[in-house]
């Protein structure tokens, strides 16, 4: 049986950090739509060029481009047992497209952990976030600092601050979340797959709750 997990929650709540940890325990591939877009930008693909202008403004990339990218990724052989989705879906149109796509694979969204935190926590998390250039590993200067400043603990590559983690864009991303993504809370609650988790606690406490939700 395939298992599909959708990590839901606002930007900066810790989805990426938790997804990296949970992927190890579940063995499912961690699929981050934001990481996929950033890889496309790095590789200067047509999709990367199209996505960049939206990302720089803190807006969502259009649904058709995003859905096509995820469809392609979920069709890869490493997703044969399912996947852990981080940052997708972000609109109701995407959630409906995902439902159809997973039905084609004979699967469905099994778990939707919804991680929450106050807006001030999100802003603090995003503005102190450092991301690894090679593989997108995530650190925070105060809450999860790398052993050596500016260097990724996992692969030794350089850490950088994402352009869209700057103050003006952060505010816009949070607004966009409340307007376009928050309706998915009700969408998944109605389907009985939502579990709320308080994300304003230390990383390991959130991980423990997540694993409990997943029955691990
Ligand atoms: P993230 O790394 O999840 O914070 O995503 C960074 C940016 O990528 C977002 O602000 C959007 O511009 C874009 N993006 C990521 N995932 C999606 C999605 N599911 N739908 C539309 N845009 C997305």
What layout of secondary structure does this protein have?
Layout: E1 3-7, H1 15-26, E2 30-32, H2 33-42, H3 46-57, H4 63-74, E3 82-86, H5 92-104, E4 109-116, H6 119-127, E5 129-132, E6 138-140, E7 159-160, H7 167-181, H8 183-190, E8 194-198, H9 203-213
Parallel strand pairs: 1-3, 1-4, 2-3, 4-8
Antiparallel strand pairs: 5-6, 5-7
Helix pairs in contact: 1-9, 2-3, 4-5, 6-7
Count of individual domains? 1
Query: Mean of the pLDDT scores?
Result: 96
- What is the CATH first-level class name? Alpha Beta
Strand order, largest beta sheet: 2-3-1-4-8
Total beta-strand segments: 8
User: Helix-strand pattern, N to C?
Assistant: EHEHHHEHEHEEEHHEH
Helical residue percent band: 40-55%
Q: What would CATH call the homologous superfamily? A: P-loop containing nucleotide triphosphate hydrolases
Task: Please tag this protein with its features.
single chain; 216 residues; alpha/beta; Rossmann fold; globular
Tell me what the structure shows:
This protein is of the alpha/beta class and 216 residues long. The chain has a single domain, classed as 3-Layer(aba) Sandwich (Rossmann fold). The protein has 9 helices and 8 strands. A 5-stranded parallel sheet has the order 2-3-1-4-8, sandwiched between helices. A 3-stranded antiparallel sheet has the order 6-5-7. Helix 1 crosses helix 9 and helix 6 crosses helix 7. The chain is globular, with a radius of gyration of 16 Å. The mean pLDDT is 96. The structure holds adenosine monophosphate. Adenosine monophosphate (AMP) binds next to helix 2 and helix 3.
């Amino acid at each position: 049986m395939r298992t599909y997990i959708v990590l839901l929650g606002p930007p900066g709540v810790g989805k990426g950090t938790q997804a990296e940890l949970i992927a190890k325990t579940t063995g499912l591939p961690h699929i981050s739509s934001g990481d996929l877009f950033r890889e496309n930008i790095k590789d200067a693909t047509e999709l990367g060029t199209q996505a960049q202008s939206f990302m720089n403004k803190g807006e969502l990339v259009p649904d058709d481009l995003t859905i096509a990218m995820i469809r392609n990724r979920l069709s890869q052989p490493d997703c044969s047992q399912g996947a852990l989705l981080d940052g997708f879906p972000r609109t109701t149109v995407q959630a409906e497209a995902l439902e159809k796509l997973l039905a084609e694979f004979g699967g469905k969204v099994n778990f939707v952990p919804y991680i929450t935190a106050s807006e001030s926590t999100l802003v603090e998390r995003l503005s102190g976030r450092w991301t690894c250039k090679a593989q997108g590993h995530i650190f925070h200067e105060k809450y999860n600092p790398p052993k050596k400043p500016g260097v990724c603990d996992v692969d030794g590559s350089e850490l950088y601050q994402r352009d869209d983690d700057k103050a003006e864009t952060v505010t816009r991303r949070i607004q966009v979340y409340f307007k376009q993504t928050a309706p998915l809370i009700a969408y998944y609650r109605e389907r009985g797959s939502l579990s709320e988790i308080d994300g304003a606690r230390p990383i390991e406490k959130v991980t423990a709750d997540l694993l409990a939700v997943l029955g691990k």
